[in-house]
Amino acid sequence: xxxxxxxxxxxxxxxxxxxxxxxxxxxxxxxxxxxxxxxxxxxxxxxxxxxxxxxxxxxxxxxxxxxxxxxxxxxxxxxxxxxxxxxxxxxxxxxxxxxxxxxxxxxxxxxxxxxxxxxxxxxxxxxxxxxxxxxxxxxxxxxxxxxxxxxxxxxxxxxxxxxxxxxxxxxxxxxxxxxxxxxxxxxxxxxxxxxxxxxxxxxxxxxxxxxxxxxxxxxxxxxxxxxxxxxxxxxxxxxxxxxxxxxxxxxxxxxxxxxxxxxxxxxxxxxxxxxxxxx
Length: 279
Ligand SMILES: [Zn+2]
What we know:
The protein has 279 residues and is α+β, with helices and mostly antiparallel strands. It has helices at residues 45-48, 82-85, 87-103, 111-126, 130-145, 191-197, 208-219, 222-225, 232-250, 255-267; strands spanning 3-17, 21-28, 31-37, 56-63, 69-78, 179-182, 187-189, 204-206. It has a 5-stranded mixed beta barrel. Strands 7-6-8 form a 3-stranded antiparallel β-sheet. The radius of gyration is 21 Å and the shape is elongated. The N and C termini lie far apart (70 Å). The structure holds zinc ion (ZN). Zinc ion binds next to helix 6.
Protein backbone atom coordinates (compact mmCIF):
# COMPACT_ATOMS: atom_id res chain seq x y z
CA UNK A 1 0.00 0.00 0.00
CA UNK A 2 1.22 3.46 -0.79
CA UNK A 3 2.00 5.91 1.99
CA UNK A 4 1.02 9.58 1.76
CA UNK A 5 3.17 12.45 2.94
CA UNK A 6 2.98 16.22 2.73
CA UNK A 7 5.71 18.61 1.79
CA UNK A 8 6.28 22.09 0.49
CA UNK A 9 8.25 22.23 -2.72
CA UNK A 10 9.53 24.48 -5.48
CA UNK A 11 9.36 23.14 -9.04
CA UNK A 12 12.93 23.20 -10.36
CA UNK A 13 12.44 21.18 -13.56
CA UNK A 14 9.66 19.53 -15.50
CA UNK A 15 10.07 16.92 -18.17
CA UNK A 16 7.60 14.95 -20.19
CA UNK A 17 7.15 11.28 -19.49
CA UNK A 18 5.06 9.19 -21.84
CA UNK A 19 1.95 10.70 -23.40
CA UNK A 20 0.36 12.36 -20.43
CA UNK A 21 2.73 12.50 -17.48
CA UNK A 22 5.47 14.77 -16.23
CA UNK A 23 8.40 14.12 -13.96
CA UNK A 24 9.13 17.09 -11.70
CA UNK A 25 12.25 17.89 -9.74
CA UNK A 26 11.25 19.59 -6.51
CA UNK A 27 13.40 21.43 -4.01
CA UNK A 28 11.83 20.62 -0.64
CA UNK A 29 12.89 21.28 2.97
CA UNK A 30 13.96 17.60 3.08
CA UNK A 31 16.08 17.78 -0.06
CA UNK A 32 15.84 17.48 -3.82
CA UNK A 33 13.11 15.11 -4.89
CA UNK A 34 11.95 13.58 -8.20
CA UNK A 35 8.19 13.03 -8.39
CA UNK A 36 5.68 12.00 -11.03
CA UNK A 37 2.67 14.14 -11.91
CA UNK A 38 0.26 11.64 -13.47
CA UNK A 39 -1.85 13.03 -16.30
CA UNK A 40 -0.27 16.45 -15.81
CA UNK A 41 -0.09 17.22 -19.51
CA UNK A 42 -3.84 16.75 -19.83
CA UNK A 43 -4.76 18.88 -16.82
CA UNK A 44 -6.78 21.97 -17.53
CA UNK A 45 -4.71 25.11 -17.17
CA UNK A 46 -6.10 26.12 -13.76
CA UNK A 47 -4.91 22.94 -12.15
CA UNK A 48 -1.72 22.77 -14.15
CA UNK A 49 -0.70 26.15 -12.68
CA UNK A 50 0.10 24.49 -9.36
CA UNK A 51 3.02 22.62 -10.90
CA UNK A 52 4.44 25.26 -13.26
CA UNK A 53 8.18 25.85 -13.33
CA UNK A 54 9.42 27.97 -10.34
CA UNK A 55 6.10 27.61 -8.50
CA UNK A 56 6.13 27.02 -4.77
CA UNK A 57 3.31 24.74 -3.64
CA UNK A 58 2.10 22.40 -0.93
CA UNK A 59 2.08 18.83 -2.15
CA UNK A 60 0.49 15.64 -0.97
CA UNK A 61 2.63 12.85 -2.38
CA UNK A 62 2.13 9.14 -2.46
CA UNK A 63 5.24 7.09 -1.86
CA UNK A 64 5.54 4.24 -4.35
CA UNK A 65 8.33 1.71 -3.80
CA UNK A 66 10.63 1.14 -6.78
CA UNK A 67 9.03 3.94 -8.79
CA UNK A 68 8.74 7.70 -8.67
CA UNK A 69 6.61 9.04 -5.85
CA UNK A 70 3.34 10.35 -7.28
CA UNK A 71 1.76 13.74 -6.62
CA UNK A 72 -1.80 13.28 -5.45
CA UNK A 73 -2.57 16.92 -4.60
CA UNK A 74 -0.88 20.26 -5.24
CA UNK A 75 -1.89 23.65 -3.89
CA UNK A 76 -0.01 26.73 -5.00
CA UNK A 77 1.52 29.05 -2.39
CA UNK A 78 3.53 31.38 -4.64
CA UNK A 79 3.30 31.29 -8.45
CA UNK A 80 6.48 33.33 -9.17
CA UNK A 81 4.76 33.95 -12.51
CA UNK A 82 6.97 36.82 -13.63
CA UNK A 83 9.92 34.38 -13.84
CA UNK A 84 8.07 32.64 -16.68
CA UNK A 85 6.91 35.78 -18.48
CA UNK A 86 10.00 38.00 -18.18
CA UNK A 87 12.95 36.65 -20.17
CA UNK A 88 15.67 38.33 -18.11
CA UNK A 89 14.23 37.51 -14.67
CA UNK A 90 13.62 33.97 -15.90
CA UNK A 91 17.25 33.68 -16.99
CA UNK A 92 18.43 34.62 -13.49
CA UNK A 93 16.03 32.06 -12.02
CA UNK A 94 17.43 29.37 -14.33
CA UNK A 95 20.92 30.32 -13.20
CA UNK A 96 20.13 29.92 -9.50
CA UNK A 97 18.38 26.59 -10.18
CA UNK A 98 21.30 25.28 -12.25
CA UNK A 99 23.75 26.24 -9.54
CA UNK A 100 21.71 24.34 -6.95
CA UNK A 101 21.59 21.37 -9.31
CA UNK A 102 25.31 21.36 -9.78
CA UNK A 103 26.15 21.43 -6.08
CA UNK A 104 23.36 19.18 -4.76
CA UNK A 105 22.24 15.82 -6.13
CA UNK A 106 18.90 14.07 -5.60
CA UNK A 107 18.11 13.51 -1.94
CA UNK A 108 20.56 16.19 -0.81
CA UNK A 109 19.44 19.47 0.71
CA UNK A 110 17.93 20.87 3.86
CA UNK A 111 15.49 23.47 5.12
CA UNK A 112 18.01 26.31 4.82
CA UNK A 113 18.59 25.49 1.15
CA UNK A 114 14.86 25.46 0.42
CA UNK A 115 14.45 28.80 2.24
CA UNK A 116 17.37 30.31 0.32
CA UNK A 117 15.94 29.27 -3.04
CA UNK A 118 12.47 30.43 -2.06
CA UNK A 119 13.67 33.86 -0.94
CA UNK A 120 15.89 34.26 -3.99
CA UNK A 121 13.07 33.48 -6.42
CA UNK A 122 10.90 36.06 -4.63
CA UNK A 123 13.67 38.69 -4.89
CA UNK A 124 14.09 37.88 -8.58
CA UNK A 125 10.36 38.53 -9.02
CA UNK A 126 10.30 41.84 -7.17
CA UNK A 127 13.67 43.53 -7.02
CA UNK A 128 15.44 45.81 -9.49
CA UNK A 129 18.99 44.66 -8.78
CA UNK A 130 18.90 41.05 -9.97
CA UNK A 131 22.70 40.77 -9.79
CA UNK A 132 22.60 41.52 -6.07
CA UNK A 133 20.14 38.67 -5.53
CA UNK A 134 22.39 36.35 -7.57
CA UNK A 135 25.58 37.31 -5.71
CA UNK A 136 23.92 36.96 -2.29
CA UNK A 137 22.52 33.58 -3.31
CA UNK A 138 25.92 32.34 -4.51
CA UNK A 139 27.63 33.08 -1.20
CA UNK A 140 24.96 31.33 0.82
CA UNK A 141 24.51 28.36 -1.50
CA UNK A 142 28.28 27.80 -1.54
CA UNK A 143 28.20 27.92 2.27
CA UNK A 144 25.50 25.25 2.45
CA UNK A 145 27.37 23.11 -0.08
CA UNK A 146 30.61 23.28 1.95
CA UNK A 147 32.39 25.61 -0.49
CA UNK A 148 32.05 28.92 1.33
CA UNK A 149 34.85 31.19 0.12
CA UNK A 150 37.09 32.40 2.96
CA UNK A 151 37.02 36.16 2.48
CA UNK A 152 37.64 37.42 6.01
CA UNK A 153 41.09 35.84 6.44
CA UNK A 154 43.95 35.61 4.00
CA UNK A 155 44.29 32.09 2.59
CA UNK A 156 47.93 32.77 1.64
CA UNK A 157 51.03 32.25 3.72
CA UNK A 158 49.73 33.80 6.90
CA UNK A 159 46.41 33.11 8.50
CA UNK A 160 45.45 36.68 9.21
CA UNK A 161 42.38 38.82 9.01
CA UNK A 162 42.03 40.51 5.65
CA UNK A 163 41.80 44.10 6.76
CA UNK A 164 40.42 46.37 4.12
CA UNK A 165 41.48 49.94 4.55
CA UNK A 166 38.74 52.56 4.54
CA UNK A 167 37.94 53.15 0.93
CA UNK A 168 38.52 56.59 -0.50
CA UNK A 169 35.90 58.30 -2.57
CA UNK A 170 36.59 57.71 -6.20
CA UNK A 171 35.57 55.71 -9.20
CA UNK A 172 35.81 52.46 -7.34
CA UNK A 173 38.91 51.07 -8.94
CA UNK A 174 41.63 53.70 -9.27
CA UNK A 175 44.61 53.86 -6.91
CA UNK A 176 43.59 50.85 -4.91
CA UNK A 177 45.88 48.04 -3.98
CA UNK A 178 44.74 44.76 -5.49
CA UNK A 179 43.79 41.81 -3.36
CA UNK A 180 43.74 38.32 -4.79
CA UNK A 181 41.22 35.54 -5.07
CA UNK A 182 42.57 32.01 -5.08
CA UNK A 183 39.98 29.27 -5.65
CA UNK A 184 42.54 26.54 -5.06
CA UNK A 185 43.09 27.68 -1.48
CA UNK A 186 39.47 28.70 -1.10
CA UNK A 187 39.36 32.47 -0.85
CA UNK A 188 40.98 35.88 -0.56
CA UNK A 189 44.66 36.81 -0.57
CA UNK A 190 45.95 39.92 1.14
CA UNK A 191 47.87 42.35 -1.14
CA UNK A 192 51.25 40.96 0.02
CA UNK A 193 50.32 37.35 -0.70
CA UNK A 194 48.67 38.33 -3.97
CA UNK A 195 51.93 39.99 -5.03
CA UNK A 196 53.74 36.69 -4.41
CA UNK A 197 51.09 34.32 -5.72
CA UNK A 198 49.67 36.14 -8.67
CA UNK A 199 51.51 34.09 -11.22
CA UNK A 200 49.59 31.05 -9.97
CA UNK A 201 47.30 29.87 -12.76
CA UNK A 202 44.09 30.06 -10.75
CA UNK A 203 44.72 33.33 -8.91
CA UNK A 204 42.80 36.42 -10.04
CA UNK A 205 42.76 39.99 -8.78
CA UNK A 206 39.92 41.51 -6.81
CA UNK A 207 39.55 45.13 -5.76
CA UNK A 208 38.97 46.07 -2.11
CA UNK A 209 35.49 47.15 -3.17
CA UNK A 210 34.79 43.74 -4.64
CA UNK A 211 36.08 41.95 -1.56
CA UNK A 212 34.08 44.18 0.77
CA UNK A 213 30.96 43.56 -1.30
CA UNK A 214 31.44 39.78 -1.05
CA UNK A 215 31.92 40.10 2.73
CA UNK A 216 28.66 41.99 2.97
CA UNK A 217 26.92 39.31 0.93
CA UNK A 218 28.15 36.64 3.35
CA UNK A 219 27.24 38.71 6.40
CA UNK A 220 23.82 39.83 5.20
CA UNK A 221 21.07 40.42 5.84
CA UNK A 222 19.76 40.84 2.33
CA UNK A 223 17.17 43.38 3.49
CA UNK A 224 20.02 45.72 4.40
CA UNK A 225 22.00 45.13 1.20
CA UNK A 226 19.05 45.71 -1.09
CA UNK A 227 18.77 49.33 0.06
CA UNK A 228 22.23 50.10 -1.37
CA UNK A 229 22.98 51.05 -4.95
CA UNK A 230 25.72 48.79 -6.33
CA UNK A 231 27.70 50.23 -9.24
CA UNK A 232 27.44 48.18 -12.47
CA UNK A 233 31.25 47.97 -12.70
CA UNK A 234 31.39 46.41 -9.23
CA UNK A 235 28.76 43.85 -10.21
CA UNK A 236 30.72 43.00 -13.36
CA UNK A 237 33.93 42.48 -11.39
CA UNK A 238 32.41 40.38 -8.63
CA UNK A 239 30.39 38.25 -11.03
CA UNK A 240 33.58 37.47 -12.96
CA UNK A 241 35.48 36.52 -9.80
CA UNK A 242 32.66 34.30 -8.53
CA UNK A 243 32.19 32.57 -11.89
CA UNK A 244 35.92 31.84 -11.84
CA UNK A 245 35.66 30.37 -8.33
CA UNK A 246 32.54 28.30 -9.12
CA UNK A 247 33.96 27.01 -12.42
CA UNK A 248 37.17 25.99 -10.68
CA UNK A 249 35.31 23.90 -8.10
CA UNK A 250 32.80 22.37 -10.53
CA UNK A 251 35.55 21.83 -13.13
CA UNK A 252 33.02 23.22 -15.62
CA UNK A 253 31.17 26.49 -16.09
CA UNK A 254 27.49 27.03 -15.44
CA UNK A 255 25.77 27.14 -18.83
CA UNK A 256 22.94 29.45 -17.84
CA UNK A 257 25.51 32.02 -16.64
CA UNK A 258 26.84 32.26 -20.20
CA UNK A 259 23.31 32.68 -21.56
CA UNK A 260 22.61 35.32 -18.93
CA UNK A 261 25.64 37.37 -19.97
CA UNK A 262 24.66 37.15 -23.65
CA UNK A 263 21.09 38.15 -22.87
CA UNK A 264 22.19 41.16 -20.83
CA UNK A 265 24.48 42.32 -23.60
CA UNK A 266 21.72 41.94 -26.18
CA UNK A 267 19.23 43.89 -24.08
CA UNK A 268 21.59 46.57 -22.77
CA UNK A 269 20.35 50.04 -23.76
CA UNK A 270 22.60 51.88 -26.20
CA UNK A 271 24.31 55.01 -24.86
CA UNK A 272 22.62 58.25 -25.92
CA UNK A 273 24.12 59.57 -29.17
CA UNK A 274 26.79 62.23 -28.74
CA UNK A 275 27.97 60.82 -25.43
CA UNK A 276 31.44 59.32 -25.48
CA UNK A 277 32.88 57.14 -22.80
CA UNK A 278 36.55 57.42 -22.09
CA UNK A 279 37.99 53.93 -21.98
ZN1 LIG B 1 48.40 37.11 3.22
